[in-house]
Write a structure and sequence with these properties.
The strands form two sheets. This protein has a seven-stranded mixed sheet with strand order 4-3-2-5-6-9-7, sandwiched between helices. Strands 1-8 form a two-stranded antiparallel ribbon. The chain is α/β, with parallel strands linked by helices.
Amino acid sequence: MTKPTLGNPQNTIEVLQKYGFSFQKKFGQNFLIDTHVLDKIISSAGITKDDMVLEIGPGIGTMTQYLACAARKVVAVEIDKALIPILEDTLSAYDNVTVINEDVLKVDINQLAEEYNDGKPIKVVANLPYYITTPIIMGLYESHVPIESITVMVQKEVADRMQTGPGSKDYGALSLAVQYYAKPYIVANVPPNCFMPRPNVGSAVIRLTSHTEAPVQVKDEQLMFKIIRASFNQRRKTLANGLNNSSEIQLPKEVIIEAIEKLGKGASVRGEALTLQEFADLSNTISEML
């Protein structure tokens, strides 16, 4: 298999100059230019020759080359059509890569898993544009795509948020959603100088290993996430007021307070003090009252 040629600044600059490529701020493009980080992502994603990998935002194909060497099949989804001719060039030596020029939020990933992996769980690897990290990750989980793991480069602050627990200022709806679907583990912190152009913030590689079964039993998943969102929408408010003010939860305030008290919590508790298990219990109590 052809060895990766990208991943160092020199080769990246050559490719960009050859095609006269200019970075698009609207796509949040920051290309990785550190081979150690690339090796770390591939090894932490645990990719083998049995795997189909979905790569989101391949850019000029830097990580795609590494993935192609490690996996059986790589499907790379790139939104920027200016990058498609570059990818055709940089990936021409790899016959196990399919590039799709599309917005990943509009792609039927279940269909891709069916077509290229017989519907078996896929691995997702990405250097995600920071402005769209949360919609992409939540979109993958909420559409119940068969996923074994997601290994992604994200803003350091977002990685911290994904793995933190109750009581921390970073704890919120994203922490709970990610932890409901997967076990998060920060693999490495990555400084801005590993990218071209340099972002203004530090980054981190985080691996989300999907749970084989949900860590909490909940009767109505959608209701639980409505409750979670409502309780963090106005962080300074008590949980009871947050739920009472939500247009998604149509219940009298006294019923909400009764449900919270069944948890053994006072009416003045805030959402950020509750664990995932307590949100599940609260959701189950409220669903019986509806």
